[in-house]
Write a structure and sequence with these properties.
With 214 residues, the chain is mostly beta strands. 0% of the residues lie in helices and 51% in strands. The radius of gyration is 20 Å and the shape is globular.
């Protein structure tokens, strides 16, 4: 089995359970459905995300404060713009010349907000900003850092809204990120090489795909 789980503890009324899940070393990054079964039937399914970088949350943030939570990259941060007007703030240390990718997943993980991600330098001068709705609820920024130092990231709703469904996952790091492939079409029923286009990729980045009949 690539994923195995066990119930560590459950509530007396049977409505809550803590589950420990172990992933095999060769499990690919991605999402998996998990659920519980007992004599009464099956629970609803939840998404479990498997990743190979550190995971963090916005739990230490205080929406009424202007402080930034310092994170070490690469990292994926699970958060929620829980209240109208809330701004989640993070900070990381970067090196001149690094191309840092900030990927914000919203709609793809079930979030309902129209979220905006922005990046600023040590003088709090904005370097880039991206509205998630422009990309159907998810977005990415890729910025070449101009200097060594601390950089600041903010996540907020475009209309200053918030709520329990304004979930997001913000990934920050000098990570390989593919945005396109070339050519855009390949012959049917044979193998073809595609060149990958994006950030932090090797000089020659190709994959071989085998097309079907259609």
């Amino acid at each position: 089995q690539r994923l195995s789980g066990k119930v560590v503890r459950s509530s007396d009324d049977g409505q809550q359970a803590t589950v420990e899940v172990t992933a095999a070393a060769d499990v690919a990054r991605g999402s998996f459905d998990i659920w519980l079964e007992n004599a009464a039937g099956e629970s609803s399914k939840l998404k479990l995300y498997i990743d190979d970088i550190a995971q963090d949350t916005d739990a230490e943030l205080e929406p009424s404060k202007s402080a930034f939570k310092i994170v070490k990259t690469p990292v994926s941060i699970w958060g929620k713009v829980a209240k109208p007007g809330e701004v989640d703030r993070f900070a990381f240390d970067g090196v001149a010349g690094q191309t840092i990718v900030l990927e914000l997943a919203g709609r793809s993980i079930g979030g309902k907000g129209n979220l905006v991600t922005s990046l600023a330098d040590g003088r709090r001068q904005q370097l880039a900003s991206e509205h998630a709705a422009d990309r159907e609820g998810d977005s990415h920024l890729a910025v070449k850092l101009p200097a060594d130092g601390r950089y600041f990231v903010q996540v907020q709703d475009l209309m200053m809204q918030g709520g329990k469904e304004h979930d997001y996952r913000l990934t920050i790091g000098e990570l390989p990120y593919v945005v396109a492939a070339y050519p855009l079409s390949v012959p049917a029923n044979q193998e073809s090489d595609l060149e990958l286009i994006g950030y932090n990729l090797p000089p020659v980045s190709k994959v071989t795909v085998k097309a079907g009949a259609s």
